[in-house]
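In the design runs reported in the main text, the only information available to the sequence generator was the tokenized backbone. The following block is the verbatim input for one such run; it is reproduced so that readers can re-run the procedure and compare outputs position by position.
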């Protein structure tokens, strides 16, 4: 039975350097092979732009398995969400601002072997995912553009 290294990609929606991200993912894949894995599986938060989108396209082009974990922005709030905390996005739709943080914790709870963090413009979501991974003892490879 084959074993894949699970790689969690977290990154800014404004990630400016596709080549650096792709080169990093290729290196991580190569390192996983050198460590005895049969390849990698790439997990990300499935944002509609930025690092997640770039990583998704790279994985598809290279035949890498994907785990897409979108946040449930429109869904119900968790029990720890305070009353009146919901916000409106630029289209006027209401959402739970904690949904991304809950999704980040869910991805960390899947116990990836490594987190690749493409941190740019002080992305709060990326910083949150990095903190959660470090707290869980998961190695984090940070790249910056």
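Verbatim output:
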């Amino acid at each position: 039975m084959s074993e894949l290294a699970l790689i969690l990609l977290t990154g800014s929606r404004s990630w400016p350097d596709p080549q650096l991200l792709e080169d990093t993912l290729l290196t991580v894949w190569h390192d996983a092979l050198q460590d005895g894995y049969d390849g990698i599986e790439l997990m990300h938060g499935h944002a509609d732009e930025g690092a997640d989108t770039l990583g998704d396209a790279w994985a598809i082009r290279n035949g890498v398995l994907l785990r897409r974990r979108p946040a449930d922005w429109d869904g119900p709030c968790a029990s720890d969400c305070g009353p009146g905390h919901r916000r409106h996005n630029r289209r006027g739709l209401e959402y739970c601002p904690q949904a991304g943080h809950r999704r980040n914790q869910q991805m960390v709870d899947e116990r990836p072997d490594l987190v690749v963090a493409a941190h740019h413009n002080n992305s709060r979501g990326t910083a949150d995912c990095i903190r959660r991974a470090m707290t869980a003892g998961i190695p984090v490879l940070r790249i910056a553009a």
